[in-house]
Amino acid sequence: MSLSRRTAARSVRFLGVTAASAALALSAAGSALACEIGDFSAAAGCDGAKGVITVTDKDATGVPAVVTVFLENNGADLRQVGEQTVEGSKKGTTITFAETWEPGAEYRIHIKAVKNKKVLVDADIAGNLTTPAEACTSGDDTTSPSPSASESESGTPSGTPSTTPPDTISPSPSDSSDDSTVPSASNAPSPAAQESNLAETGASNTGLIAGIAAVLVVIGGGAVFFGMRRRGSGNR
């Protein structure tokens, strides 16, 4: 009987130690899976020409956490950038705050996580976030080509035609068409042609003039003849 009692007592003690160990193990496991400030990280970057601040939550339990970002100035909150709620994951869940940050600026990121009315996290991410030394740029800025020497001297961009002086303007097609309506000197009869025409006119009228003269001579002769005849008859 005494041996049995001793055995039972040892068994109870063993069970007690085992239960306590299991409780400690479960407590440690629960603490490891609980949301904590170490699950959160922050970074400043660029989205094109716009600045952004990103916060990543790697809480595998997915406890909702409120993330608040503040711009710092000499250790004091200058203004609140924004506030969002994030549910973490084992791979990490990232949220983004649009912020046109200046190079070397400091931001404080506060995390508050509550589950079943129990506050799991209510602290800042260790160390303020400091932005990069260079601001964001669009990456599309291109240097415009410098003006050529001829452009800088004349003030007129190269490749553009210069204005022709008024006295060197060539006649337009309309001007040449107007000139074509004026009779040219070649259309007027030459002196040689006029003389030939007069000569031809005189030659063609010579026979007519000779005929008229002959008729006048005959008429005159007849008049003289009849006149002399009348005189002769009167003298008798």
**Helical content (DSSP H or I, runs of 4+):** 25-40%
CATH architecture classification of the domain at 37-130: Sandwich
- Give the CATH class of the domain at 37-130: Mainly Beta
Instruction: For the record, give the distance between the C-alpha atoms at the N and C termini, rounded to a whole number.
Output: 234 Å
Poorly predicted runs are 25-32, 148-152, 173-186
Structural class: alpha+beta
Shape: rod-shaped
Structure overview:
With 236 residues, this protein is an alpha+beta fold. Among the domains are: 94 residues, Immunoglobulins (Immunoglobulin-like, Sandwich), CATH 2.60.40.10; 45 residues. It contains four helices and eight strands. The strands form two sheets. Strands 3, 4, 6, 7 and 8 form a five-stranded antiparallel beta sheet that branches. A three-stranded antiparallel beta sheet has the order 1-2-5, with no helix packed on it. A hairpin with a 2-residue loop joins strand 1 and strand 2. The longest helix is centred in the last third of the chain and has 45 residues. It starts with a helix and ends with a helix.
